[in-house]
């Protein structure tokens, strides 16, 4: 909702909509093309997959072709942007969320820009309203997803809450992402901090570890390789029927099906969710600031915002953007997600992740 969202979900149906691979060279922002046009370079995570058509529309409107440079999971992409800030790899960064925002802002990787259309974005999502260094783009809820077939076959009710996940009947069923390297992994950890507090989240993770939780580096590996409920996971013979993913993951599993089922093959444990907001920003030192500004404006507009639900499976922030029926029918609506104040995340994130790594990865 970079995640991340901040997301294309790797199912075969999503791949049909994916943007074809583009040549990506660091520092190519604003380069001239052979046809006389300009190229604006967008740096993002691996799950930035808007439809080909919507980026073609941007080129038609502005003359700029978008070159996408992907840098791994959202956490890795942000770290790479920080490491390369003296020589930015592109003009715009898309995919820093509220769990990682303070790290990016504190390292000064963004230049101020008040995007056109901010008046259509709820104020509570504008976390840098005074500085305008980043622009909200989408929201998503990181939640535990479950494989409906597995639980039906085993005559076991799927978990609903964080408390459920440490019960004996769910031993060895959950795969999650590394909180140190993955945006959804970090969001899931933050959900446990929000639920159990500073004094209780580590005890919870001890119980989760004792209950056989598996940790992998990033979302792609967790969802597409280890999760038994996704199309890609079934092909890869994944054997974990519980995975940390998104409330909007289920629509991806039915998107390419000719005959749509009454319900999707995967469900969402709504009592496990953490709310993410994903942002884009103009990289400081960008070679083509005008192209970068034009791209941010376009991504906040209705055409791009209405493209996101069925290409990246996140919710638009533009109030005027409509949600497609498939997204609302098969996706889960989370009424009470866990949240933490950005300033609390900023103050404690590094020590929380360090403690989590020491506890869970050793």
How would you portray this structure in words?
By secondary structure, the protein is of the alpha/beta class. Helix content is 35%, strand content 19%. It has helices at residues 12-15, 52-62, 74-83, 101-106, 148-153, 183-196, 201-210, 219-226, 231-235, 250-254, 289-300, 302-311, 325-330, 342-360, and strands at 31-32, 38-44, 64-70, 92-97, 110-111, 135-147, 174-177, 214-216, 242-246, 266-283, 315-316. Strands 1, 2, 3, 4, 5, 6, 7, 8, 9, 10 and 11 form an 11-stranded mixed β-sheet that branches. Strand 1 (31-32) and strand 2 form a beta hairpin. The longest helix is centred in the last third of the chain and has 19 residues, at 342-360. The chain starts with 11 loop residues before the first helix and ends with a helix. Residues 1-29 have low confidence and may be disordered.
List the helices and strands and how they pair.
Blueprint: H1 12-15, E1 31-32, E2 38-44, H2 52-62, E3 64-70, H3 74-83, E4 92-97, H4 101-106, E5 110-111, E6 135-147, H5 148-153, E7 174-177, H6 183-196, H7 201-210, E8 214-216, H8 219-226, H9 231-235, E9 242-246, H10 250-254, E10 266-283, H11 289-300, H12 302-311, E11 315-316, H13 325-330, H14 342-360
Parallel strand pairs: 2-3, 2-4, 7-8, 7-9
Antiparallel strand pairs: 1-2, 4-10, 5-10, 6-9, 6-10, 6-11
